[in-house]
Amino acid sequence: MDYQDIIYAEKAGAATITINRPDKMNAFRGQTCEELIHALNRAGWNDDIGVIVLAGAGDRAFCTGGDQSAHEGSYDGRGTIGLPVEELQSLIRDVPKPVIAKVQGYAIGGGNVLAAICDMTIASEAAQFGQVGPKVGSVDPGFGTAYLAQVVGEKKAREIWCLCRRYTAREALEMGLINTVVPAEELDAEVERWCAEIMEKSPTAISIAKRSFNAATEHHRGISSMGMQALALYYETEESQEGVKAFLEKRKPDFRQFKK
Ligand code: 2NE
Q: Is the CB of 25 under 6 A from ligand 1?
């Protein structure tokens, strides 16, 4: 596969998969998801690879979720909502190697969900985290909500979704959303150090450990699948479309007109 939206590189047993759409703040469209799925499979089933790093190109964003400019009630690819995002999220869990999110800037919306699903997250002091769905007419149910609650706790997860605030890397560390924070200039070296430490360990033990963690949270895949069906129906509503329009028109959405 020739990649247009991502960059794939291998070094010292680590595969780095970088979303390369900095002009869109590394938001994903259908093609991006397809390429990420391809690259995760490529690295995940290669015995020479012991660890996978998921990253975003440029300084500003790790990933800001679904590409709002490719989203008018649906996206442009396949999958329940026009993006094979369930497949992508599942695959991060299913590859038998640890996946580390390297977050140098915004991890927002579906980008925050990807980072949360990764086995570990290493962030720069400049990183910011948060969900935006209820601000832009979307929601990422399952892994984005219920699994997030397992990571940061119920109260915090509900706050994250209801208020759609942005959290600094230090706040993310405090709530257990990430593993460590380093100065921006030390991020690459820190990720390389973690990868090197993982490469010294037994790959089979690590893959069994990963699968055992997954087994305890596997029900979230079912919640996600059901939730994505609901999301597809929500995308057809004027309420959801108001959120997308408002974001693209750079104005505040007027959701109260749809109050129930
Ligand atoms: C990311 C954030 C917080 C950045 O804010 P700020 O103020 O620093 O920058 P600004 O001006 O908002 O954004 C800079 C440029 O990046 C684009 C913007 O439109 C803007 O473009 P220009 O005006 O310079 O041309 N940009 C940012 N995020 C984008 C995106 N996701 N798609 C397309 N263009 C994007 C702020 O921009 C923000 O909150 N973005 C909203 C992110 C968003 O709505 N994400 C989708 C949520 S839904 C989702 O992810 C999802 C899912 O998780 C599962 C299934 C389906 C969808």
A: yes
